[in-house]
Amino acid sequence: MVMRYGDGGGLNQAARVRREQVRRRAADLFAQGVGPVEVAKRLEVSEKSA
To answer: Distance from CA of residue 26 to its chain's centroid?
Structure first.
């Protein structure tokens, strides 16, 4: 089952922009071979989020 949230998960526009920036940075780090634990630490997010 996939959960769907209206309006960007309840985030305002600024928060959605920040979230997308974090996602892109995480993708760059993963592409460089950085592991999930280090990505989470660098981006200050949970390991599950990374």
So the answer is: 7
C-alpha–C-alpha distance, residues 26 and 38, integer Å: 10
pTM: predicted TM-score of the whole model, two decimal places? 0.73
CA distances, 42 to each of 8, 35, 39 (Å): 24, 11, 5
Chain segment 2-46, per-residue pLDDT in tens: 556 665 567 888 888 999 999 999 999 999 999 999 999 999 999
CA nearest neighbour of 35 among 50, 20, 19:
50
* Sequence ranges of the domains in the chain: 8-43
